[in-house]
C-alpha cells in the first residue's frame, strides 16, 4: 500500500472511533476469516454487579460481603470491582488483607484477621480442596441465568456463593451479525464457566465458543486457528487477553480496557462498540481498493 492511502484510511477509521496504531494491520483487517472475541468486557459491558449472595454458614450477609470486598479490593478484575461496589453501596467498610495473591483465570486469596480467604471459581475451589457439595447446583442455576457464580471459602470451608451479572452490550448481537454477513466466522473465548458461556453465546449468536479457557490458552487457541489457515482477528480488553492480541493477525483492543491490552493491540476500538470491527474492515477494504 502507498503510505498516502494508508494515511487516508487511518484518518477515515479515526472518524468512526477506530484508532489504528499499526498501518499494516489496517491492510490485513479486510482479510480476516475468523474473529475471536473475549466475553467479559468485550461482548459484555464489563461492569458486572452483584445479583445474589447465598450464605451457607452462620455469618451474616454483610460480614461475608465485607470480607469478600476486602480481598477483591486488591484485584483489578471486573468481577472484583462488582463485589467492591456492592459493599460500598451498602456502606460496608473494608478491612485489611495481607499476603494477597491473584490466581489468573481462577480468583484471589489472602489473609484477613488471622483467617485465610479464598474467592473465585469452581476450579479454584477444587484445586485448593474446598468441598462444594450442593453449592455446585446452586452455581449452575445461577450460570444458566447468564450470571457468573463465585465461591467464597474461609479457612478452606465454603461460606458463600456470590453471583454477578454483566449486561451484554446493546449492539453486540448486531455487530456480530454484521461480521458474519461479511463471511467471517465469529468465535467467543472466555475464562468464565460453561453454563454462563452457553447462555451468552446463545444470546449474541456466535458461531462457536470455548469456555473455561485459561489466560495462557487464549493465545494458544488463536494459534490453532492460524495453523488451520485462518487469518485471525482477536478482540479483548483484559491483561489476560494481551498475549492473544499480540499473536493474532490483527489485535483489536477495547478502548475502555486495560493499558496492557491496548498496547498489545494493533487497533483500538475507542467507542467500545463491536461495530468498530466491521467499520475497520470496511475502511481496510476501501484502502486496498484505492491502492490498486
Ligand atoms: P474472562 O475475561 O474471559 O471472563 P478471566 O480469565 O479474566 O476471563 O477470568 C476467568 C474466571 O476466573 C472468571 O470468570 C472468574 O470465575 C475467575 N476469576 C478471575 N479473577 C477473579 C477475581 N478477582 N475474583 C473472582 N473470580 C475471579
Ligand atoms: Mg475480558
Verbal overview:
The termini are close together. It contains 13 helices and 13 strands. It has two domains: 3-45 and 168-291, 3-Layer(aba) Sandwich (Rossmann fold); 49-165, Calcium-transporting ATPase, cytoplasmic domain N (3-Layer(aba) Sandwich), CATH 3.40.1110. Helix 4 crosses helix 5 (78-89). The mean pLDDT is 94. The longest helix has 17 residues, at 275-291. The chain is elongated. It is of the alpha/beta class and 292 residues long.
Largest β-sheet summary: 7 strands, mixed
What is the fold-level CATH name, i.e. the topology of the largest domain?
Rossmann fold
What's the overall average pLDDT, rounded?
A: 94
**Low-pLDDT windows of residues:** none
3D shape = elongated
- Beta-strand portion reads 15-25%
Sheet with most strands: strand arrangement: 1-13-12-11-2-9-10
Topology record:
Blueprint lengths: L2 H13 L2 E3 L2 H7 L4 E5 H5 L5 E7 L5 H12 L5 H12 L8 E6 L3 E6 L2 E6 L1 H6 L7 H10 L3 E7 L2 E9 L6 H10 L3 E5 L4 H11 L3 E3 L4 H13 L4 E5 L5 H6 L2 E5 L4 H6 L2 E3 L5 H17 L1
Parallel strand pairs: 2-9, 2-11, 9-10, 11-12, 12-13
Antiparallel strand pairs: 1-13, 3-8, 4-5, 5-6, 6-7, 7-8
Helix pairs in contact: 1-13, 2-13, 4-5, 7-9, 8-13
This protein binds adenosine-5'-diphosphate and magnesium ion (MG).
Magnesium ion (MG) binds next to helix 3.
Characteristics of this structure?
alpha/beta, Calcium-transporting ATPase, cytoplasmic domain N, binds magnesium ion, 2 domains, binds adenosine-5'-diphosphate, seven-stranded mixed beta sheet, 292 residues, six-stranded antiparallel beta sheet, 13 strands, 24% strand, elongated
